């Protein structure tokens, strides 16, 4: 199974000003992966501007509670020593330097010949040829012994470490031209890689735990919503049965009260009061039942909205899963086609002519 753990995220910000979009994106990234903030094109600023900008970025990250990867406890002192030792290494020669060196050597030889012919002491003014630079300056090992062996271009570097421009050659592995060696040693030396991997694993476990907790919370919410809906339906049935029983008892009581005693004669004028009371009670009961039905309908509509939102969440998650499966299937098909092509090429290579 392929390990998809992301160990580090190098986030490059623009010089002089940090954008709000960078802050928003870093707020989402720092909980998922170890974050290392790098100022891109820092050579466009002076040392004072760089220091002030670093303090501003550090304060802004602390204000927004954005966690960045801490290399080691004694990092500033060792970093200064690393930069000092790297700066002491002379830069590699360029075409311009070689041309100037050859011109100076030719000028010195001409002056020496002129002094020999004239008999003057002009040989003292001859400029000696400067000593060649150390050929092993670029091949020297990093200040900290890296974990990737003796290949300086294996990690965080291309096979070709130099890029030729019209104005000279830029060496990515030299401290005078690039901060890449310092960043490489910070990340991969003196236990830095181990700390980086441990922090990446911790953040990945936290993300997986949080995802599992969210799924469990959604399941509990769906269960509680279903139980609440069943309880509301049961209460509605009980209220309707109770209202019907109360109406039946009230009608029986009114019917019994409406019957005159045996010793009294029946008079039609005495019937309007019980009938009016019965009509009032019936209207009151119907109004209560209508209000109860309205409240029940509103509760059921709210429950339907919650069920709809939950169903949409599940459908979105299922759609994401299907997309991921489709991408995986496409990648497998590409790998299968590539493997078949390789097998066909190998079979054609080993096929003997008839």
From TrEMBL:
Residues 1-214 form the Septin-type G domain. Signal peptide: none annotated. The keyword Ubl conjugation does not apply. Residues 120-140 are annotated as: Disordered. Keywords: GTP-binding, Nucleotide-binding. GO terms for molecular function: GTP binding. Pfam families: Septin. The keyword Zinc does not apply. Coiled coil: none annotated. InterPro entries: G_SEPTIN_dom (IPR030379), P-loop_NTPase (IPR027417). Belongs to the TRAFAC class TrmE-Era-EngA-EngB-Septin-like GTPase superfamily. Septin GTPase family. This is Septin-type G domain-containing protein. It comes from Coccolithus braarudii.
